[in-house]
Design brief:
Layout (H helix, E strand, L loop, with lengths): L10 E2 L17 E9 L5 E8 L5 E8 L7 E2 L19 E9 L4 E10 L2 E9 L6 E7 L3 E6 L8 E9 L2 E2 L1 E6 L6 E7 L12 E3 L4 E3 L2 E12 L2 E11 L7 E5 L9 H4 L7 E8 L5 E8 L3 E8 H11 E2 L5
Antiparallel strand pairs: 1-22, 2-3, 3-4, 4-5, 6-7, 7-8, 8-9, 10-11, 11-12, 11-13, 13-14, 15-17, 16-17, 17-18, 18-19, 19-23, 20-21, 21-22
Bound molecules: beta-D-mannopyranose.
Amino acid sequence: MLYPDHERLFHRYPGNPLLTAEDWPYSVNTVFNPAATMLQDGTTLLLCRVEDHRGHSHLCAARSADGLTDWEIDPQPTLMPEPEKNPEDLWGIEDPRITYVPELEKYVVVFTSYSRGGPGVSLALTADFKTFERCGVVMSPEDKDAALLPHRIRGLWALIHRPVGWLGAHMWISFSPDLRNWGDHKLMLEARMGAWWDANKIGLCPPPIETPRGWLTIYHGVRQTAAGAIYRLGLALFDLEAPEICLLRGDSWVFGPEEPYERFGDVNNVIFPCGSTLGKDGDTLTIYYGGADTCVAAATASIHEMLGWLDRNGRPPQAG
Ligand code: BMA
């Protein structure tokens, strides 16, 4: 067969959307693009991007025992922009990713801070999602879609991020001895060109999943059309020891907007996950995503099936 059938790897939770502005204990415009982590006691914590009626975002935690129902939402914002202390927060903080780092016994939260300089990448540490130690801007504008790997690589911390250059918005990886000073920047995955679903602009979704085969990575690709952008998801696999090396990348997208809550909202046709949790079986991944920049939804996929799909459909990226 010249062209493979489109396989359905991701399965939407039938109770989607999980969370909307109406669930919030205080007045908000939209709730979307959540980071996710599973706490020590098995509780799922989502750190949601919450947009107020000025258009500025902050972060707010929602907790659930089963990761799907009975969400308990913090009665007040969990992490607010502090433009007096952090001028980079002037227009809000957005799109967090959470990585639990065993060496630090802390969660590292990486998010977009938005100001006159443009969107940049900020980093904060927390042990309890109540108090946060802010470490400032780690990647200057224009840069976003960042997440930390959970342990050092070749003795250094590794941060994936998405700077914007005049030849496109590609995924890069950078290294640091102390989480504050970053260098050794390497291009990790390029946006394709022309008619591709992931032409010109891509970005990391949840932090990559460490598997024996490599770092399994879900990324978003942005297709510009006459009717606006379409945000869809693709898969790639990166070398465990040298995560700047892409081993396999799929050609087709694996998940895209289909349901009304993904098709229609403040920004139509957007699926934007920033977090995932791993099920007790060690294989079922639940991704948490923003639908149309308006709500929070969930879908599951098998890691085994995603790797099998990459074996059948993926290839090393071509140079040039
Ligand atoms: C991106 C980010 C996301 C958003 C998406 C679609 O650039 O700002 O927060 O979901 O655009 O609007």
